[in-house]
Amino acid sequence: MNVLMAAPEAFPYAKTGGLADAAGALAAELAKMDHHVRLVMPFYRTVKERFPAMDCGRPFEVKIGERIIAGNLYRHENAIFIGCDQLYDRPDLYGTSSGDYADNAVRFIFFSRGVFEAARLCGFKPDIIHCHDWQTGLVPVYLKKIYGADPFFSGTKSVFTIHNMGYQGVFRAETLPLSGLPPGIFNPEGLEFYGKMNFLKAGTVWADIITTVSPTYAGQIQTPEYGFGLDGVLRNRADRLRGIINGIDDCLWNPARDRYIPGNYSAGKIMPGKGICKKRLSSLCGFKDPARPLVSFVGRLSHQKGSDLAAAVAGEAVAEGVDLMFLGKGDDLYQRELAALAEKYPESLCVRIGFDEEFSHLVYAGSDIFLMPSRYEPCGLGQMIALRYGTPPVATGTGGISDTVRNYLPLSGAGTGFLFGETTPGALRQSLWYALCVYRGGNRWRGIVRNAMAEDFSWRKSAARYVEVYGEAMGQASGG
Ligand code: ADP
Ligand code: GLC
Known about the structure:
Layout: E1 2-6, H1 18-32, E2 36-42, H2 45-50, E3 54-55, E4 60-64, E5 67-76, E6 79-83, H3 85-88, E7 95-96, E8 99-100, H4 104-121, E9 128-132, H5 139-145, E10 157-162, E11 170-171, H6 176-179, E12 192-193, E13 196-198, H7 199-206, E14 209-212, H8 215-220, H9 224-227, H10 231-236, E15 241-243, H11 273-284, E16 294-301, H12 307-319, E17 323-330, H13 332-344, E18 349-353, H14 357-366, E19 369-372, H15 382-388, E20 393-396, H16 399-404, E21 418-420, H17 425-440, H18 443-454, H19 460-474
Bound molecules: adenosine-5'-diphosphate and alpha-D-glucopyranose (GLC).
Alpha-D-glucopyranose (GLC) is lined by residues 17-19, 22, 163-164, 213, 246, 377-381, 400.
């Protein structure tokens, strides 16, 4: 099968969150299964600076309203990059901590059209274009309304994966003419959303198959509480909606071989490796006593991730004898809140603002407990990585977290973590206190760590599910 993976970010090229891990690892796993895969993404500054991509010498132009914008293709291994310096040569992918880039609509209209140009110019005839999140939401519409008429794409179908309903790419109605799409689709059955243009809705309406990143989230997004206004659209397309859990790249995230941690370990022999990692992390954080339980948070600092809930119980946790480490980047509000806590508790609370892939390995390995108080979580990779590194999560039992973390059962000793229901500081506190109590009990904790490390989160099963879904999409008649 020929799969064109169109993603706004993908590991190792550019990453702000789990979408990058998922798109990069899925592309690699499909290639291992002997499918022909090309990853297409924007040629951001970070890619340009860190990878020796080759200029393909294939310039192209896209009409955006009255403007003609010129682009170029670059290639690195199986990835094709859509180059356009005026749009992508910037310090960040989508915006800064104070907000999104004002021209994101144009940046991703150009990218979505560039996906078709890239396929054509590189002679890669896709059976499936697999698109990810709102930035590629227009691709399924372009396929149905414009490019499907080109014999090159006559057999092509689209699969659209929603990684997060909280980011929909909603722009002023005046954006539609810039896209070159017919005005007739600007209605509630199409991509109109309360008088605006909604890219995620477009993908949801026109994709041949829609997937999201866990079975539980696939159910949740069809309800008003989690659908962010699109639950009705998703209910209408429920027969085409599938929930497929993400995996993690088990070569990259493997405590037995990880190059970024000072002590390697495995489920069969956890000590001394994990202890060495904890000592290193504790000392880098400036903590005084590595015998204290070390509880950490790694994630985007946004309302979704609930770092504020963790911040609300931080003072009591420190008083309970806990050391706390936060690694994150995101909204100013949450960055400031954490920075203030670090000043207040310099000896037992450490905050690193920034995106630090390498350091995150040490945080997962060197911590005792991983905090993930998400208000909602489509899949979540943090909890899976933490489990693999023998760091049981204290996390909200929502979305993909509830599909991957098994709640600890004291009588049988089964379970891999501690789940709580309500996203309140009180519920988090109770769950954390319980986890600490078990941690201090010794033996039972070691059992949870072993259970956690024995879980299989590799991509194999999920990639096979995607192949089934591609097959379903290809079996569908064209229309729309
Ligand atoms: P989301 O995609 O919603 O941000 P996930 O849990 O799916 O959340 O994935 C987050 C990914 O990004 C994980 O690989 C996590 O380790 C990584 N990550 C998040 N924040 C940081 C950070 N500040 N530094 C390093 N890695 C981070
Ligand atoms: C999103 C979600 C996260 C998911 C990731 C990869 O950003 O917030 O839950 O794991 O995408 O699918």
